[in-house]
Design a protein that fits this description.
The complex is a heterodimer of chains A (166) and B (316). Chain A has 166 residues and is α+β, with helices and mostly antiparallel strands. Helix content of chain A is 34%, strand content 27%. Chain A is elongated and about 60 Å long. In chain B, helix 2 crosses helix 3 and helix 8 packs across helix 9.
Chain lengths: 166, 316
C-alpha cells in the first residue's frame, strides 16, 4: 500500500458516530442533533467530530451515493490491462488522468489465470460507449500493454460501504 | 408483448413460491393483493400468453424422484452449425435443456450446452454416447460435467420491487440534487436547510426528495462515506470463479460477511468481484480464508499496490 496511513485518530465515540451514520444520515431537519441524541452526546461534539473526520480524510465525503444502474449507466466495465512492470507507474498515471476513468489502480497479477496488473473503471449507458473509451485507453498505452479485457458487471450483489462491527 | 406492470409483478412474486393449496387459489391471491379474482386470472392468462410464465404447476425435484445422475454436456461446435445441431440435441427426449452460451476462451471453449438426466451415471453415459453418434456432433470437442452437489434449486424468483436494471427517470430537480449533493453536504445545525438554499428549494422538499431517491434505489444511501484505510483499517478487491449453478448460494455466503462492502457479478471466468473493507488489516486474510473454507472455492486477493485515480462523482 502506497498511501501513508494517518494515525487512527478515532476513539470509541467516533466509532459510535460512524456506526450510527454508516447506513445514512437521518433525513430530518437537524440530523447531527438526532445522532447526538441517539448516542447521548452533545450536538456540538458530534458536529465537531464529523468535521474533524472529514478533514483527516476518515470521511471521504458526505452526500448522495448514487446507484449507477438506476441512473441509466448500465454498462459498467472494469477494464484490466497487462502492462510492462517497467512502465506501470507512468502508464497508470496517464490512464488515471483520463476524465472518463473513474477509478484506476495497480493490482497484483495472479499468473497464469490473471495476467492483469492495471485496473481502470469505465462507465457508459451502453457497451459500445465503454468500448470506445477502452479503445482510447488502448491507443494511449500502445505497446506498453500486452493485452486487456473488459469485465462488465451484470448484477450488484451487495453495496453497503464500510461497516464497523457493533 | 406488454411489460409486466406493478400488479403483475406482485402476482408473480406471490405465485413464485407456490400456489396456495386451497380450493380457490386465485381468490386467495386476489384477497392478499387487494384486487379481484377475475383480475388475477386475466393477468395470469396474459402473462402465460406473453411467455412471462412458462407454465403454472408442479416443478419436480428430479433428485428426489431417483434421477441422481445429472450431467451438463458441452460441445465446441462451429458457430454456423449451432442452430442445426442444437435442434438435433433438443429432439432427444432425455435432453431437458439445450442452450447456446458464449465461449470464454481460453478456459472455456464450449458454446453448446445441454442437460441429461438419468437414474445413474451409466445410463446417462449411454445417452450421451447416443448424442455423440451423430457424426457432426461427435466430431466436436466435448466435455461432460456431472453435478456433484445441489446447492440451490428454486427456479427464478421474481422480486416484487424493481429489478436492478430498472432505470428510474429523474426530473430536473432530482438531477440537480444528485449532481449537487455528491459531496460537500454541510456539517451544521440545519444542513438540509443550508444545502436546500444553495439548490434553490425548501428544506422540506429536499428531505422529501432525498427520501424518495433512497427509497427508489437511485441513491444507495445518503450520508458520510468512510475511508477504512484512514481509520486504521484496510481494503482489498477479491475475485472468485463461481460455477453458475451455485452462484446465488455463494453470493449469499460472501455477502453474509459484514466486511464485504460491495459485491458485483461480472462476465468473466472470474465472475464474482467483491471489496473487503476491514477495521483490523489482518482480518483481510482471515475473511478470505473463511470464504474459501465456506465455499470450497479459491479467492484471488487483488489489493491495490498503487492508486492512480479515484473519482467519486457520477454526473446525471
Amino acid at each position: 500500500m502506497n498511501e501513508v496511513k494517518a494515525m487512527p485518530a478515532f476513539d470509541e465515540i467516533d466509532r459510535r458516530i460512524i456506526q450510527a451514520t454508516q447506513d445514512g444520515l437521518p433525513l430530518v431537519s437537524r440530523p447531527y442533533h438526532a445522532v447526538a441524541e441517539a448516542l447521548g452526546l452533545s450536538p456540538d461534539d458530534v458536529i465537531e467530530r464529523i468535521r474533524r473526520m472529514s478533514e483527516s480524510g476518515a470521511i471521504r465525503r458526505i452526500g448522495a451515493v448514487p446507484n449507477h444502474y438506476r441512473l441509466g449507466v448500465r454498462a459498467n466495465g472494469m477494464s484490466v490491462w497487462d502492462v510492462n512492470d517497467a512502465d506501470i507507474r507512468e502508464a497508470g498515471a496517464e490512464v488515471g488522468a483520463i476524465d472518463f476513468v473513474s477509478h484506476c489502480y495497480r493490482r497484483p497479477r495472479h499468473l497464469p489465470d490473471w495476467p492483469y496488473n492495471l485496473f481502470a473503471m469505465v462507465h457508459g449507458r451502453r457497451r459500445d460507449e465503454v468500448e470506445k473509451q477502452v479503445a482510447e485507453i488502448a491507443r494511449l498505452l500502445g505497446s506498453r500493454a500486452r493485452c486487456h479485457e473488459i469485465l462488465y458487471s451484470t448484477r450488484i450483489l451487495k453495496k453497503t460501504g464500510l461497516r464497523l462491527a457493533v | 408483448m406488454n411489460e409486466p406492470d406493478a400488479i403483475d409483478r406482485r402476482i408473480l412474486a406471490d405465485v413464485a413460491n407456490g400456489m396456495p393449496l386451497v380450493a380457490a387459489p386465485y381468490e386467495e391471491i386476489a384477497s392478499r393483493l387487494g384486487i379481484s379474482e377475475d383480475d388475477v386470472i386475466r393477468r395470469l392468462e396474459r402473462l402465460a400468453q406473453d411467455g412471462v410464465i412458462k407454465r403454472l404447476g408442479l416443478v419436480v425435484r428430479h433428485r428426489a424422484l431417483g434421477y441422481k445422475a445429472n450431467a451438463m454436456v458441452v460441445w465446441d461446435v462451429p458457430d454456423g452449425k449451432i442452430d442445426a445441431l442444437g435442434e438435433k440435441l433438443a429432439a432427444y427426449d432425455f435432453v431437458t435443456l439445450c442452450y447456446q452460451r458464449p465461449r470464454r476462451s481460453p478456459m472455456w471453449p464450449f458454446n453448446l450446452f445441454c442437460m441429461v438426466h438419468g437414474k445413474d451415471r451409466a445410463t446417462v453415459r449411454q445417452q450421451i454416447a447416443l448424442l455423440n453418434n451423430d457424426t457432426e456432433i461427435g466430431s466436436c470437442p466435448t466435455a461432460v460435467l456431472f453435478s456433484k452437489q445441489c446447492f440451490k434449486q428454486c427456479g427464478a424468483r421474481y422480486d416484487a420491487g424493481t429489478t436492478s436494471a430498472d432505470v428510474i427517470p429523474l426530473d430536473p430537480l432530482d438531477r440537480r440534487i444528485v449532481n449537487g449533493l455528491q459531496g460537500g453536504f454541510p456539517v451544521t445545525d440545519t444542513p438540509y436547510a443550508d444545502a436546500a438554499r444553495d439548490l434553490g428549494l425548501s428544506e422540506e422538499e429536499l428531505i422529501r426528495r432525498l427520501s424518495q431517491l433512497c427509497q427508489s434505489g437511485v441513491l444507495s444511501r445518503f450520508g458520510p462515506m468512510f475511508n477504512a484505510e484512514k481509520l486504521g483499517g484496510d481494503v482489498t478487491l477479491a475475485a472468485m470463479a463461481v460455477p453458475d449453478d451455485c452462484f446465488d448460494e455463494v453470493a449469499e455466503m460472501v455477502n453474509a460477511h459484514p466486511e464485504v462492502a460491495h459485491n458485483y457479478a461480472r462476465e468473466h471466468k472470474l465472475n464474482m468481484w467483491f471489496v473487503l473493507s476491514v477495521e483490523q488489516p489482518e482480518r483481510i486474510k482471515e475473511v478470505i480464508a473463511e470464504i474459501e473454507a465456506e465455499t470450497g472455492l479459491p479467492v484471488y486477493d487483488m489489493p491495490k499496490q498503487e492508486e492512480f485515480y479515484v473519482g467519486l462523482r457520477v454526473e446525471v
